[in-house]
Amino acid sequence: PFVLFLSFPYLIHKGITILCTLLKAFPKHKIHAAIIILLIIAAAIIIPGIFNKKEKMTITIDKEKYHAIEQKTKIKPEKYIEKKINDININDIK
User: Where are the transmembrane segments (predicted)?
Assistant: First the structure.
């Protein structure tokens, strides 16, 4: 997964380069249509990241607690902790 993450920008750059090379052979109106399509695709990739309302958080717990939660709840501790955090009523926090 890490290698794929590093090569993703390269693949996007390579794809855009190939697309631009192909677009040079088309008439002007087709180039404008292709640019609009590229803008729509770019917006579809970028906009969800902008409006993402979740924040990532990393926590550290002991292995014993991790396994205890796993045994008692029969679900992954990550899901259990996420559910507990989502169940917190913001109005109760002082």
Answer: 31-51
